[in-house]
User: What shape does this take?
Amino acid sequence: MRKINTRSFVRATRATPREINRQIVLNLVHEHQPISRADLARRMDIGRGMVTSLVDELLSEGSIYEGDTIDAPRGRRPKMLYVRTHDRLVVAIDVRFSQTFVMLSDFAGTAIALETFETVVVPAALVQQLASRITRLLDTHGGTGRCEGIGLVVPGMVDQHSGRVLNAPQLGWKDVDVRDALARATGLPVHIENAPIACALAHMWLGQRGGPVPGDFAYVTVSDGVGVGFVVNGEVVRGHTNTAGEFGHIPLDLKGPTCLCGARGCLEAHTSNLATLARYLGQQLSSATMRPLLQSTRLSITDVIAHARSGDARAIAALDETARYLGIGLSIVINALNPSEIFVGGEIADVWDQLLPTIRAAIADRALTSTAAATPIIPEAASSYPRLRGAIALVAAPLFAAPRVA
Amino acid sequence: MRKINTRSFVRATRATPREINRQIVLNLVHEHQPISRADLARRMDIGRGMVTSLVDELLSEGSIYEGDTIDAPRGRRPKMLYVRTHDRLVVAIDVRFSQTFVMLSDFAGTAIALETFETVVVPAALVQQLASRITRLLDTHGGTGRCEGIGLVVPGMVDQHSGRVLNAPQLGWKDVDVRDALARATGLPVHIENAPIACALAHMWLGQRGGPVPGDFAYVTVSDGVGVGFVVNGEVVRGHTNTAGEFGHIPLDLKGPTCLCGARGCLEAHTSNLATLARYLGQQLSSATMRPLLQSTRLSITDVIAHARSGDARAIAALDETARYLGIGLSIVINALNPSEIFVGGEIADVWDQLLPTIRAAIADRALTSTAAATPIIPEAASSYPRLRGAIALVAAPLFAAPRVA
DNA sequence: CGTAGAATGTTCTTTGAGAGAACTAAATCC
DNA sequence: GGATTTAGTTCTCTCAAAGAACATTCTACG
Assistant: This one.
């Protein structure tokens, strides 16, 4: 039951039903391909004549294509339809604290090429570096495909209107323009988004074939920070000034450790990778003490995880404590948003099985109902590149989105 | 950018544009009344012919009516349109711990009659009591108006599908059917909702004339519990199993006081009315010690507030501590949801001016950006009956909602 | 084989609402 | 008292949905 915003509404015109039904057809083809026109007619409860007309439109603009006819038990054989993805390319970029990933992919999320380089924190230099890599990638691996756009994922808050990065502490960026700069440098449309929201978008738009594509879920990222991207009614929530989902700085303990944000006892200060490392090293969490220590010991969260997997008691203890706090954090997400499921991304997903009992116990302690406590929680391994998939979704999603109406 | 749910979509038909535009007209009349057809045409950017046709439909079904023609500087005088509200009645019911409120109101939210009685906690008896009062109210005060439905607000979680109250600790209800029972007893459609969501609905649908009707905001209720109703993209968020918005049991301090829910350090255990009372009395918060004490001292939160207003230092100190924790709670809402504004309802709104500096300071400590810290926070006095207004909105809203499409 | 039956896909015709022009109504302004 | 302006109504035109009719292409079965 949505309220119509009388200050900004979209009136329906004679073309509106067609726009809506066209997108429904496109989405049905996307999720059920290969699919025949007759099947579309049955699923949509319209005549086959209508489907022919809608499909013709999608065919002529190249959104879908007609594949082979397939065998049928009786009657005329159907001509199957597919979404055109193989020759539509996307450049996906994931800028992280230490490294930047650039992937050339098709619209379906299939990787064509992947490059990595050390992150350049000076925005202008980064844009130039990216632009030259992108043109090279497209020249060497692009083939006959056309690049439809660039998806850029950054570790920080993004203002969707201006395309500026409002605050990215890991990069030291404050109110930095990269979207428009990269668009100018490459001549391609650029879509920018922060990491947790991008990961949520990936699950919404590039979810597993046949898997559930729920209209409401949350994606929790645990890395140097803790962020949440969440989807309500099939739409990602960005908030009034693009800062929704900052669960990382919710206090668990007002007298707890000092967080890098300056406040005390933040969830992030208990369960981020840095917090786990600090715990493992028996240190206080603070950028002053941690940075030099990490540089000298050359220790990273993946090392702690590897130690835990091979049975190191100290690593296990550190991670188990992290898991307990993560469980509390997840209970906060559950109580606040009541999502149908939660995905958890980050290095910690690689020791999920070992940590799950602790996490579940912490959730059970705090969830208000037994159904809420049983919310499915699905780890996502870093090896599936969730952020890069999010970057792809940024470019691909607008083509599948429902038209804005009313 | 909404994703189309391919498992449950609404196809557009030839009638869809009309349904959409009809609702836009209705909403424009609602928010700008009195308004002329010509003005509607300008606001919607359509021809006056189209408006005539849409308005005729709304007139013939009685949603709107034509008032007087008014003076104009030049040209033919316009005939003004109004939403028909005066003879469409709603029975609004607010069931609370100690008392139950029953209000007869028109569609615009104007009160016609208000009754109060001591809450009967046995569901069947309550339903019978309500039914007899409702028929009497309608007989004596109903006049020529027709009652369009009953809005029922309860202090607990509600399953919208079955209409059952899943859990209402204040009433001792668990999985109790009242919606359908009351509908059977009265022969009227009954809409049921929990208090924070209802209050949010009231602000969305019965917001002040000319005031902002934002598509995203939060409503925080502080009474015996702490709950949040929030709106995203013009739609209230209920969650997958109707338990979204339970911010009251987010921990502020894992070693803090034991909450009535059994966990420790919940926001609610720090900032609910009971917590304030316990603090004022210098007691631990627990139902075992508090209930007899409150009964013997006959002390309620309104007394503490009255003392604070007349300068009682102990009351001021207790409330100031509550305000500090409330500020932290609001910072959680801000960081998680980033709403454009937050309404705060509950008795504490009556000492808002005295507590505001403490609340603002607590928010500033924890909000991540300066714009987020500046989120407008608007207290709502109990004297405006926010819950009863929510009950009215439950009945009135469906008539103004955008049609579900795609 | 040849024909009935069944399923897919295309092409008609019908219908009804949006779009906009033309017209009527009712006021003010020289 | 006619020109002008604004509001509201009534036409006509057009185009997409709806659905019937038709063409196509397969299997099944005598």
Notes: The first strand of chain B starts at residue 64 and ends at 69.
